[in-house]
């Protein structure tokens, strides 16, 4: 991996020669791993989804962006709008690091509506002369023509006493007519925390600390990034991405985690009584998700299909990462369920179906192959001890999903998937389902797989980098028969 100097990482897009950018763009376009129905960077590195909102008939989806290569350098917001969250129109940079306060990065933040106008609250990342981090929370107004005007100074100038400058990622929400911002923080004992601010006297420019949220997680990692708060089915839900949690069995296997707490939050006392922290995704590549309300009033989640500090195979091509497909959230049996956005059905083409016993499928299924598709597998009768689905297969590659009927576990094995991130040691992810496996709904794009188990009960999201000719789909069983219904759609995004 080529090392990037600090100077190179903090080079401004505006200072780079157009022809250099064009060369990089052309290089990225030739990558065989480019996605077709996921948001991906045109060059450079994408990370967190930012500023998600449905506003005046349009969706706004931005993401963290370092344009010049696959490293975490000077961050911008790249913006898309969409009519349906299925296809997206790119608009380029919407927020750039052009003030003293955000000179070293326009970091993550959220969108909200205030008196009929669209605003962003985000973290301004600044480094002083000794390279000490200075974090503040900034506001920007989005004009009708898509340009933005930043307020000339931060609305929250620095972290409160008792906390370090790891103070970022404000999510603004409204409750009972009052605007609040929930912000990720680290206290002086280097423990992750969440801070709540409110707009004083309902003035946009004056945000005051309400206090630290009192959760039942006393020592749970060193930093909590990208918090989110929302109400769903009369419950309070808090999402966040904690860093510094040790793996425990099948849980918390990735470098950093993201998950949720469901409970009741008292905004007067800041007491949050909640259940256990549950990971949102059990795959290899998922982090920093955010939610918003869609045009139908549904709560939608989009995540970053990637993780910090992991080296991906496309890094050498000058780009990395993508966003996940949007997922609709509900609470069922006290847990979040996540289903692919219904509107994604618009991408479906060339439906193919098959019905039969699993180990007869290798022959019957030969036409069922591809690189971009949705596959729904209904398990109608299962007498096997193990059930195997191999996707993107060839003589050399195979992405293997195993279901163990007795243990009710799903295993995703990407050891033979193709190229791999070079600093992730384990090659499988396991999750134990709450109920026996009835259905898998799998979205495959050129270099990713998103596996929804049992109609939203569990999701496993991963990047995979198979070769171009690995397009097969296979199924087989161990001791016993399984009767299956396959439904496959080609998904037609934009190449
Ligand atoms: C999460 C994160 C955020 C921060 C942003 C910077 O991935 O570290 O906490 O705002 O990325 O790009």
TrEMBL record:
<comment type="function">
    <text>Enables the bacterium to metabolize sucrose as a sole carbon source.</text>
</comment>
<dbReference type="InterPro" id="IPR013320">
    <property type="entry name" value="ConA-like_dom_sf"/>
</dbReference>
<dbReference type="GO" id="GO:0016787">
    <property type="term" value="F:hydrolase activity"/>
</dbReference>
<keyword id="KW-0119">Carbohydrate metabolism</keyword>
<comment type="pathway">
    <text>Glycan biosynthesis; sucrose metabolism.</text>
</comment>
<feature type="domain" description="Glycosyl hydrolase family 32 N-terminal">
    <location>
        <begin position="38"/>
        <end position="340"/>
    </location>
</feature>
<dbReference type="Pfam" id="PF08244">
    <property type="entry name" value="Glyco_hydro_32C"/>
</dbReference>
<feature type="domain" description="Glycosyl hydrolase family 32 C-terminal">
    <location>
        <begin position="344"/>
        <end position="483"/>
    </location>
</feature>
<dbReference type="InterPro" id="IPR013189">
    <property type="entry name" value="Glyco_hydro_32_C"/>
</dbReference>
<dbReference type="InterPro" id="IPR013148">
    <property type="entry name" value="Glyco_hydro_32_N"/>
</dbReference>
<dbReference type="InterPro" id="IPR006232">
    <property type="entry name" value="Suc6P_hydrolase"/>
</dbReference>
<keyword id="KW-0326">Glycosidase</keyword>
<dbReference type="InterPro" id="IPR051214">
    <property type="entry name" value="GH32_Enzymes"/>
</dbReference>
<dbReference type="InterPro" id="IPR023296">
    <property type="entry name" value="Glyco_hydro_beta-prop_sf"/>
</dbReference>
<keyword id="KW-0963">Cytoplasm</keyword>
<dbReference type="Pfam" id="PF00251">
    <property type="entry name" value="Glyco_hydro_32N"/>
</dbReference>
<dbReference type="InterPro" id="IPR001362">
    <property type="entry name" value="Glyco_hydro_32"/>
</dbReference>
<comment type="similarity">
    <text>Belongs to the glycosyl hydrolase 32 family.</text>
</comment>
<protein>
    <recommendedName>
        <fullName>Sucrose-6-phosphate hydrolase</fullName>
        <ecNumber>3.2.1.26</ecNumber>
    </recommendedName>
</protein>
<keyword id="KW-0378">Hydrolase</keyword>
<dbReference type="InterPro" id="IPR018053">
    <property type="entry name" value="Glyco_hydro_32_AS"/>
</dbReference>
